[in-house]
């Protein structure tokens, strides 16, 4: 009797299949529940004769295992199909999550703007090494032996003495001008952008490295008037038409005469503010006529050729343009700072 029942239920379990959780739950209650079939057959088993018990005991245990295994394997199937149907229900009309793309560094933006303006005047771009020898950084540029700029306080020396003199991190990109002039003959019309190093304590107003764009123009009959006109044009393009310029006499070993150029403060338009220290003017670059000694040092005939040079700090131009008061922000890589500066061109 019991054996017959078990055979029937075994066939039923073997035939059962589903991928629906509610049907599987019905199966579990029917066979494995506290009032289910397994419980019933075990209760009936208690009443059978001792001889029958010996054979039926094993059969019963196998039957119980069969029901449990069936339940386990179908539980996996129903779970997988539930997950799949959840995935099928994804709402594809929801807005996407989006991802952020990086932005140009403000110094890179300003550098590019400067280069683009001078490109229109026919200036190309030249680059050189950041580790320089004494000749390219100082001597060829007419720095006297005892000039304070060679002092340990301003320059990061890498090696003292040696075949080519002291080796140092370049303190300006004028070294690239020397390399350019040594490598060819005029006309030269180029910009030298790059990173330069000076041994200064880091603060809001000074850093041990910064970025420069220098420029050089050498040809026959180049005059101070050409220098003024070129820089005047540059400033109108950079800060807008009507920006005023003024030149103050200055000194650089490699230019004669030398000047510093101020522009009318782009922030207060000359009315006076913190940026221009209430003077209405801000200094943005140094410039001058290339000293004939420098031309000769580089193998250029100073009787035939003349030229002008200028140099500016990109950080300074960016400070004015974006009103950034602390130089350290440029090198901290804080994304909240950097992503404020977006450009149309990537
Ligand atoms: N080399 C100078 C500096 O680093 C800038 C400069 C360049 C001045 C060319 C005059 C002419 O301060």
UniProtKB/TrEMBL annotation:
GO terms for molecular function: phenylalanine-tRNA ligase activity. Its EC number is 6.1.1.20. Its main location: cytoplasm. Binds 2 magnesium ions per tetramer. It catalyses: tRNA(Phe) + L-phenylalanine + ATP = L-phenylalanyl-tRNA(Phe) + AMP + diphosphate + H(+). Mg(2+) binds at residue 256. Keywords: Aminoacyl-tRNA synthetase, ATP-binding, Cytoplasm, Ligase, Magnesium, Metal-binding, Nucleotide-binding, Protein biosynthesis. InterPro entries: aa-tRNA-synth_II (IPR006195), aa-tRNA-synth_II/BPL/LPL (IPR045864), Phe-tRNA-synth_IIc_asu (IPR004529), Phe-tRNA_ligase_II_N (IPR004188), Phe_tRNA_ligase_alpha1_bac (IPR022911), Phenylalanyl-tRNA_Synthase (IPR002319), tRNA-bd_arm (IPR010978). It is found in: Cytoplasm. Its cofactor is Mg(2+). PANTHER family: PHENYLALANINE--TRNA LIGASE, MITOCHONDRIAL, PHENYLALANYL-TRNA SYNTHETASE. Tetramer of two alpha and two beta subunits. This is Phenylalanine--tRNA ligase alpha subunit. It comes from Pedobacter montanisoli.
